[in-house]
User: What shape does this take?
Amino acid sequence: MDKLLYLGMTGAKQTSLAQATNANNLANVSTTGYRADFHSLFAEQIAGAGLPSRSNSVLAENGIDTNSGSLQHTGRTLDVAVGGEGWFAVQTPEGREAYTRRGDLQLTSDGQLLTAQGHNLLGEGGPIAIPEHSSLSIGGDGSISVVPLGQGPDTQIVIDRIRVVALDESQLVKGEDGLIRQRNGAEGVPDASLKVVSGALESSNVNAVDAMVRMIHLARRYEMDVKIMSTAGEMADTGASLMRMS
Assistant: This one.
């Protein structure tokens, strides 16, 4: 009976965690540049005396779906997307470098270019700062050009270039802040072949229909795991009853 309890208990625990991951994906179906998480498990044999007949379901690590979302053209100057598998580099509050696909940028009153989450967008020389200007444009290579305030269009100057990097997909890990990092701690490598699409945003790569179907599947699997535990309890009670009768 204990084998049944282990199977039911570990299965129910990990299924509930998978359901939480799926629910978070579904909640971010409309979040710009969001990459879905997935829940991966493996069987781990329980060490100890007795026969090697019991295994726990153990969470290996939440993985990341690296498929790109679709491009949605907005026409807004500060909306940008990566045209490929690259990532925008941002600065975390701790001063470290992390990565995102989210390109709905905001310009603060003091000229700081931030992501919608409030992180400084990084350029070739660090956080991007933009002086007062009458117009701004972002090129396909990520270069940010402005026409200084009070000047004509022929005085357009390049301020900085958005840092767009390539990452090793086998090393990707998502932090609690939603930003992507490499598991080995290495920084991304700038890649000139990666293009920036101005006036567009990348949608979330979560498929709402698939997520809803998966939610139903996980709910049914959880019910099955609970039923296994209930059956193990009933079998134990029946066995104890037979022993009392004998």
In short: Residues 71-202 form one domain. The first strand starts at residue 37 and ends at 45.
